[in-house]
């Protein structure tokens, strides 16, 4: 078997690294591209999901963080800082501690999922809950990094986008070609920008046939790019993308224009519906924000915008175990209560609706 060595070693020729770069890796990248027959049947397209929850800290952020922390250490940084809705902080904390440097993370008070909070604390980051939203946290992190000896590892750091573009490289290699459409969640629009860059690079190098149309989705209550102006008090149950003023806004608009792409907004109800389809029909467990690309595909397909037979890939960005409470919520809004049974085979069989017979 060809064992995966982490994305910096696998893609060294396409990243800004040299022999002088210490490779800080937890084995990120190399995630599965999973066929999704349930989504293909609903849309008439040939649909695949790129399961980024399989990264070491459970989200796509690890692709950017292996680069950002390696480059920070190369430049002598002893401390990094980030603002986060949770996943970036989990990833920064893990990679920094692995590198033997410190991480400080700023998160919006009470607005990040428990799994992510636990990760940052477990990995020894200094975690501060800011009495504001993500955009306020990013403003503070930027100002601190400009005036204090601390290195910023948000996606405004160009090393992050560079690492994240490898998701597109892998898809081209897994499919043997570029897809026709790529669907992806949008918060700061860093990952949208990164996938476009990866696809563009492979097309220009003649490794792939085309740049897919890049379709990005924001939650309806947090949709600045769709609205065309910042949103002061962004709201959505998809806490990972509760962002009102995306850092990579301009880059993302260029990527949209280059790819004949699209930005759309999706309601929280449709996000949860897509979350359920992914869990219950595809077998892929994600956090709510990660389901928005699937919701976007279903919406665009219903609008007649996805020709039958198109090859469609969707990045599902973070693992379901990060924020598992949503799985327990029934379609009626009431939490599911698993049935309790006694220690009795006959009773259990009867509750399961099993009749005695051949095994
Ligand atoms: N999906 C998940 C699970 C995320 O955590 C994020 C961003 C996105 C999608 C959007 O990616 O910002 O590049 O457009 N999370 C950041 C964080 C903001 O702090 O973890 P983007």
Automatic annotation (TrEMBL):
Recorded hits in SUPFAM superfamilies, A to Z, give: Tryptophan synthase beta subunit-like PLP-dependent enzymes
Q: What EC number(s) would the UniProt record show?
A: 4.2.3.1
The protein's required cofactor(s) are namely: pyridoxal 5'-phosphate
* InterPro entries on file: Ser/Thr_Dehydratase, Ser/Thr_deHydtase_PyrdxlP-BS, Thr_synthase-like, Thr_Synthase_bac/arc, TrpB-like_PALP, TrpB-like_PALP_sf
Q: Which GO terms describe its molecular function?
A: L-serine ammonia-lyase activity; pyridoxal phosphate binding; threonine deaminase activity; threonine synthase activity
Q: Which residues carry this modification: N6-(pyridoxal phosphate)lysine?
A: 61
User: What sort of enzyme, by top EC class, is this?
Assistant: lyase
Query: What is this protein's function per UniProt?
Result: Catalyzes the gamma-elimination of phosphate from L-phosphohomoserine and the beta-addition of water to produce L-threonine.
Q: What is this protein called?
A: Threonine synthase
- Which BP terms from GO are recorded? isoleucine biosynthetic process; L-serine catabolic process; L-threonine catabolic process; threonine biosynthetic process
Q: Which UniProt keywords apply?
A: Amino-acid biosynthesis, Lyase, Pyridoxal phosphate, Threonine biosynthesis
Record-stated family: Belongs to the threonine synthase family.
Q: Which Pfam families match?
A: PALP
Catalytically driven reaction(s): O-phospho-L-homoserine + H2O = L-threonine + phosphate
Q: Which residues form the Tryptophan synthase beta chain-like PALP domain?
A: 24-318
Per the record, the pathway is: Amino-acid biosynthesis; L-threonine biosynthesis; L-threonine from L-aspartate: step 5/5
Q: Which residues bind pyridoxal 5'-phosphate?
A: 87, 187-191, 317
